Amino acid sequence: MAKWTYSDKVKDHFMNPRNILREDNEADFHGIGQTGNIKCGDEMIVYIKVDPDTLTITDCKWRTYGCASAIASTSILSEMVIGMTLDQAYAITAKDILKELDGLPDNKVHCSVLGDKALRAAIDDYYRKNGMEDRVRTKGAKVVCQCMQVTDEDIEHAVLDGARSFLELQEMTKIGTDCGECKEEAQNVMTGYIQKHFGL
């Protein structure tokens, strides 16, 4: 019998996922965010309800076409963010999710970025719908990797954090880990930011 390579917490959230949206009641939610690409096998949609007075997330549901890691990651994320302010939830990273899950196999880490990216998209959607466009943080960002929804801003942040090769960029952002069609453009964007910030 094959050994289960996931932590008990990942297995639990995969077998018993929390907060899946099971009914077609999208209109009940205040913000909806989508990321990933169905042709690459992973797509994530996150739905949030927000208390307008405190800007706190009161409910978080989700749907996915994805693997066990994507399901477990988003399941635990949906539990983490309820009760958080939008700013607190926006700041959650894939590393935070991995820590909460007690880790994932290296070849599945890229799946964990789907939930937090879809969550940020849902928060930005809430801001747009409620006249708070000035708080939208992805405004003007260009998506370079359609599969993983990595933007030019994500690449810039990775460069500022030390990425100097495409492999390092992949490790930080998971860009190009599905279909790989974005590799040439990603390398060009990365080179541009290295020259801009470091003159190399």
UniProtKB/TrEMBL annotation:
Pfam families: Fer2_BFD (PF04324), NifU_N (PF01592). Keywords: Iron, Iron-sulfur, Metal-binding. One of its GO terms (biological process) is iron-sulfur cluster assembly. The keyword Protein biosynthesis does not apply. Gene3D superfamilies: 3.90.1010.10, BFD-like [2Fe-2S]-binding domain. SUPFAM superfamilies: SufE/NifU. InterPro entries: BFD-like_2Fe2S-bd_dom, BFD-like_2Fe2S-bd_dom_sf, NIF_FeS_clus_asmbl_NifU_N. Residues 143-190 form the BFD-like [2Fe-2S]-binding domain. GO terms for molecular function: iron ion binding; iron-sulfur cluster binding. Residues 5-131 form the NIF system FeS cluster assembly NifU N-terminal domain. This is Nitrogen-fixing NifU domain protein.
